[in-house]
Amino acid sequence: MTNEELKKTLWDAANKLRGSVSAAEYKYPVLGLVFLKYVSDLFDAHAEVIRQRLADPASDIYIEDKATRQEAEASFVTDKTFYDQDNVFWVPPGSHFGVLLKQGTDPELPQLLDAAMGDIEAENPSLKGVLYREFSRLALGPGKLNDLMVVVARLKFDPKQHGSRESPRVSRRLNTLRGLSHEQVEQVLARGA
């Protein structure tokens, strides 16, 4: 994903909330969903890394027998240890962006998002008290939150480009936008985050 793609997606996301949420507030749900998409994409990519390690003779978790390896994959890709050791945020199954996106028409979507963010915080102590968990307090019309998620779903985070939970590039972008007013966010987006 390029800076231009990120800027366009953030701009489109902000436009989905204009008129529904005050300009001073809509950066929080947008950045919350961007973060959820980010951790979900990196989580999925790391599951593939685990599968590759199981098939790589040079790996310390290599399993030669294909049938045994396939059985182990199901267990290993759902084992939090393999994510923690590589500094990848753990995303509980019901908290994954893709799972929540499929529930976009559910009237309980705001509550599901709040619970998902709470579950991610609970599984990743470094996030305790950091994530946006007020989707249920947003006064959005029917379908607005789903529309916002559809826009955010266009973002594709690549671990080679965006790194792990310690990626300075992503952290810098999100931190830059987090403390700004609506006008300042627009200025940052106009010049490139």
From TrEMBL:
Signal peptide: none annotated. InterPro entries: D12N6_MeTrfase_N, SAM-dependent_MTases_sf, T1MK-like_N_sf, Type-I_RE_MTase_Subunit. The keyword Nuclease does not apply. One of its GO terms (biological process) is DNA restriction-modification system. Residues 6-138 form the N6 adenine-specific DNA methyltransferase N-terminal domain. Transmembrane segments: none annotated. Keywords: Restriction system. SUPFAM superfamilies: S-adenosyl-L-methionine-dependent methyltransferases. The keyword Transmembrane does not apply. Belongs to the N(4)/N(6)-methyltransferase family. PANTHER family: TYPE I RESTRICTION ENZYME HINDI METHYLASE SUBUNIT (PTHR42998:SF1), TYPE I RESTRICTION ENZYME HINDVIIP M PROTEIN-RELATED (PTHR42998). This is N6 adenine-specific DNA methyltransferase N-terminal domain-containing protein.
